[in-house]
Amino acid sequence: MTSGGNIILVLLAVLLINVSAFTSPHQSSSISAGSLFAKQQKKQSAAAGRNLVIKQQLSDMIADMAAVGAGAVAGAISRYQLGNIATRIIAEDKRLSGLTGWHTAAINIFGSFILGSLAGTPTLDASTTKPDAKGISPRMRLMAGVGFCGSFTTFSTFSVDIVGMLNSGKFVRAITYATANNVGGIAAAFAGFNMAKRMIKK
Question: Tens digits of per-residue pLDDT, 140-165?
Fold first, then answer.
């Protein structure tokens, strides 16, 4: 081959090397940009998913607190009104003076019956598909159990009543009151639990 041909081959080789050196960085940079964009999109999708979960949890928490609050208001007002009615009836009839304070025990026993009934009632959640399924929703359980029964019944007032009786020297009455409250509450809860179970099975 002539010297002119060799020169042409050398020039072509140099040209090819320059072209490859010029194009390869662009190709790698385009690949890098594509992978970075994909990673960014994946992170954004994951962040959006987490935000959606947090929003749903916050919404559920607010709804649960609202349910508990509504039940608590209803329970506290009910106990207050029943206490006022009982106090007025006892004050108007001297023959009932021995029952002063016993309305608290009656309220606690009735509240124990309600809570026992709730305990015997199954919870219906989102997985329940039977149209004739019997039970209550988790939020309704919160409202009735934690909210209503929690504020309707009162252990603190019962305790203060006992202290007052003991301080006045009424030891027999204090023992009777404590026994009626505790044994009656347990018996009422047991009765409510079994009644709910029987009604659900029907």
Answer: 999 999 999 999 999 999 999 999 99
Residue 16 to residue 153: CA distance in whole angstroms: 91
Count of Cβ atoms closer than 10 Å to residue 56 Cβ: 10
Number of Cβ within 10 Å of residue 178's Cβ equals: 17
Cα dihedral 142, 146, 149, 154, rounded to 10, equals: -170
Please give the Cα distance from 163 to 168 (Å, whole number): 9
Q: What is the DSSP letter of 122?
A: P
| Contact (CB, 8 A) for 189 and 119 | yes
d(CA 146, CA 142) in angstroms, rounded, equals 5
Two structure tokens written together for 23 = 């194009």
CA-nearest of 181, 139, 146 to 160 is 181
- Residue 170 CA, distance from chain mean position: 43
pLDDT of amino acid 9: 58
Q: Which residues 6+ apart lie within 8 Å of 129 measured at CB?
A: none
Rounded CA separation 151/145 (Å): 9
> What are the start-end ranges of the H helices in 93-170?
102-119, 138-141, 150-152, 155-167
Q: Are 74 and 143 in contact (CB under 8 A)?
A: no
pTM: 0.73
